[in-house]
Amino acid sequence: MTFHRQMAAAALAALAFALPAQAQTQLTYKSAKTGTSYYQMGVELAEAVKTASDGNLILTVEESQGSVQNVMEVRARGGDYIFTAPPPLVADAQAGAAAFEGKGDAKFAEIRALFPIPSLTMHFVLSGTEGGTDMGQLEGKSVLLGKGTFSATEGEKYLNLFGLMDKVKIADAELSNAGDALKNGQIDAFVSASSWPAPNIIEAAAGTGVRILSLSDEQVTQTGQARVEIPAETYPGQTEAIVTTGLPVVAFTTTAMDEETAYQLTKDFWETREKLAETAAWWAGVSPDQVAGIGTLHPGAKRYYDEAGVATGG
Q: Which of 11, 51, 98, 102 is the most exposed place for a label (fewest CB within 10 A)?
């Protein structure tokens, strides 16, 4: 090799050495209260995505007071923001309806879906192991619904539908304190919307002893939501299956996220989903079949689904 070629090769090698490795992208994942199943899912997802992306995508999990807060924060967040919510809640925000009445914002129209996560399952948890498990057991009881959460709005809706709202006392406390409040006798029951098995309910069942109430088929129909059956022995002391309802939950972002980041994040999620399900059973319920119903997709996510041959509903 001539001197000039040696110098050129050395220069190229130096340039290659000087080039930075693929840039690390920092993202924020807004999930739920600590101690809940959805917060735990966020931690699991962050670890899985970091591994799948060789450390190029880093998700920082933030505690949240609930899905309503997650959506509201879109107004002040940028392209690094990912949050979880049921699709109907996003639709309410975009329409300025329900919890978002009088709180509309143009940024809500920029919300885009990435991928589904385990569904919300309604839990009506009553203290004590003795007695029935029908919804009528709530009559005369102090019930904690929480504030600003999907479980609060959905729980209130169910109590009204079943003619129970005037027969219970709604407790004024934070849902994060439900287990302690139940143990201390401050409340008799609480409502929680979370994927099963929910850590906070396992803790309450193991420590205090609880009954998780079942809806009748007629009540399930009244809610307009999908029927969910939680198998027996899911929670300590639960000897029979629980009939309740469920609602899809999705990881969303906005159009402020660049297409490549959304593409890689969606790709990494699906390529690691089976491994996630090996260590946490709730991920096994997430399927590509659900993608068609999760809402308007981010272009980056849409590109992944088109490449993977996943039906997106449009």
A: 102
